[in-house]
Write a structure and sequence with these properties.
about 100 residues; alpha+beta; two-stranded antiparallel ribbon; 3 helices
């Protein structure tokens, strides 16, 4: 395996490990505010996912028609939002609400 291939594998593995921290509770997408993002889907197992995850950033709408700017978690993780105590990223980083 070349250095470039090894690096690409490392990046892929690191990204997958980071994504695995998400508990898919829907809190950061507005579930606990009763006005979630229109792209949020409740799965059969009760967890949530975004049906357009690759294009989630930027201006979005909620089910009630409100607009918001979806941002990376690193921008909001130090803060608190309804249900944020469930966030797997906050738990891993030991960030208090």
């Amino acid at each position: 395996m070349s250095q470039d291939e090894a690096y690409q594998k490392y990046l892929k593995d690191a990204s997958e490990a980071y994504e695995a921290l998400c508990r898919r509770c829907g809190a950061c997408c507005g579930v606990f505010e009763k006005d979630p993002c229109v792209k949020l889907v409740k799965e059969e197992d009760g967890r949530y996912s975004c049906f357009d995850y690759a294009n989630r950033f930027g201006l979005q709408k909620t089910v009630n028609g409100n607009t918001f700017n979806c941002v990376t978690l690193c921008r909001i993780i130090p803060g608190s939002w309804p249900g944020s105590w469930q966030c797997g990223y906050k738990k891993q980083l030991k960030i208090k609400n």
